[in-house]
């Protein structure tokens, strides 16, 4: 995909804007992933979430407490960031 983008890029970029073209070319060839939204899985949030989950707080309530969605908590569990205790 990157090779195709590098091949196509000269046809899409304004040739009078040398700085912009060079920046786009470097970005297309880069192995570094694009910068996305910052993660809410900070050490502090993970520590708070795990402590609350260990005390028996529901995942929904933990999510509200740290400002993320319930799906985020379950996603962290699936990724191994936090562990949700099984209900007995």
Compute the CA-based radius of gyration: 21 Å
According to DSSP, the number of beta strands is 0
H/E element string?
Answer: HHHHH
pLDDT < 50 stretches: none
Total count of helical runs of at least 4 residues:
5
Overview of this protein structure:
The chain has 88 residues and is mainly alpha-helical. The protein contains five helices and no strands.
Protein topology:
Blueprint lengths: L1 H11 L5 H12 L13 H12 L4 H8 L3 H10 L9
Helix pairs in contact: 1-2, 3-4, 4-5
Entry summary:
The chain is mainly α. The chain has helices spanning 2-12, 18-29, 43-54, 59-66, 70-79.
Provide key terms for this protein.
88 residues, 2 domains, mainly alpha, 5 helices, 0% strand
């Amino acid at each position: 995909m990157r090779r195709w983008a590098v091949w196509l890029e000269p046809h899409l970029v304004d040739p009078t804007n040398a700085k912009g073209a060079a920046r786009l070319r470097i970005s297309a060839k880069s192995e570094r992933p694009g910068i996305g939204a910052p993660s809410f899985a900070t050490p502090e949030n993970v520590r708070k979430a795990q402590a609350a989950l260990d005390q028996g707080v529901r995942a929904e309530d933990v999510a509200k407490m740290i400002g993320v969605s319930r799906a985020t908590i379950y996603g962290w569990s699936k990724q191994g960031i936090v562990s949700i205790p099984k209900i007995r």
